Automatic annotation (TrEMBL):
Any Pfam family: zf-U11-48K
GO cellular component terms given for this protein: nucleus
GO molecular function, one term: zinc ion binding
Keywords, comma-separated and alphabetical: Metal-binding, Zinc, Zinc-finger
Keyword Acetylation recorded: no
Residues in the signal sequence: none
Taxonomic placement: Eukaryota, Metazoa, Ecdysozoa, Arthropoda, Hexapoda
Protein name: CHHC U11-48K-type domain-containing protein
Keyword tRNA-binding attached: no
Domain CHHC U11-48K-type: 9-36, 42-69
Length: 179
C-alpha cells in the first residue's frame, strides 16, 4: 500500500480547489492555462517553471523563492580544481577529418544505385508511365526495353533478388487448433 505524504499533494495555481499529486501538476497546469487564459494572468518563476505567480506577487516571490538558492549555489561555486588525476596529455593524431573531402550524402543518388523499388507518387499519368518504364530498365537491366502489355504494366516491379530466380521463403504457418 502506498503511503502518501502531505507534501505530495499540491493546489493548482489557477484554481485553488484543484488538488492533485505533485507529479501530475505540470500536466494539469497545461490544461488549466487554456481554460483560465482570459481570467487569470500568471507569470512563470525563473527558478522553477512549476511556480506560477500573480503579477503583484511576482517580485516578492523571485526574492524569496526556495529554488533561488539552488541556482545561486551553482552560479557562485568555484569550478572543481584540476589535479594530476584529472589532467591528461594532449592526444596527437595524424588523422584530420577537416582536411579530408567526403561528398555529402544524397538520398536520391543512393536510391538510384540501390536495389530499392521507387513509387511514382504525385506524377501525372504520362510522367508515371515514363517513370515506371525507367524503373523497370534500372532494376531489370537494359534488355527490358521492349513494350509490355497492359496487364504486365499493372504488375509491381520485381526486385533484383526475385528476378534472378531466388524464391522467398514461405511464411510461417500456425498449427491447426481444433477444439
Amino acid at each position: 500500500m502506498n503511503v502518501m505524504d502531505a507534501n505530495d499533494m499540491v493546489c493548482c495555481p489557477y484554481n485553488k480547489t484543484h488538488k492533485m499529486l505533485r507529479k501530475k501538476l505540470q500536466q494539469h497546469i497545461l490544461k488549466c492555462r487554456e481554460i483560465y487564459k482570459d481570467e487569470v494572468e500568471l507569470l512563470v518563476c525563473p527558478f522553477n517553471k512549476a511556480h506560477l505567480i500573480p503579477e503583484p506577487d511576482f517580485l516578492q516571490h523571485t526574492r524569496t523563492c526556495i529554488d533561488r538558492k539552488i541556482v545561486a549555489h551553482y552560479q557562485q561555486s568555484a569550478p572543481a580544481p584540476l589535479n594530476e588525476e584529472t589532467k591528461h596529455e594532449k592526444i596527437e593524431t595524424e588523422e584530420n577529418w577537416d582536411d579530408e573531402y567526403v561528398p555529402d550524402y544524397d538520398p536520391q543518388q543512393y536510391v538510384v544505385n540501390a536495389n530499392i523499388v521507387r513509387e511514382p507518387n504525385g506524377m501525372f499519368p504520362s510522367q508515371r508511365k515514363a517513370f515506371i518504364k525507367q524503373e523497370r530498365k534500372r532494376l531489370l537491366g537494359e534488355d527490358s526495353d521492349e513494350e509490355t502489355t497492359g496487364s504486365e504494366q499493372n504488375m509491381k516491379l520485381p526486385t533484383k533478388a526475385n528476378s534472378t530466380g531466388t524464391q522467398r521463403p514461405a511464411p510461417y504457418k500456425l498449427p491447426n487448433r481444433n477444439r
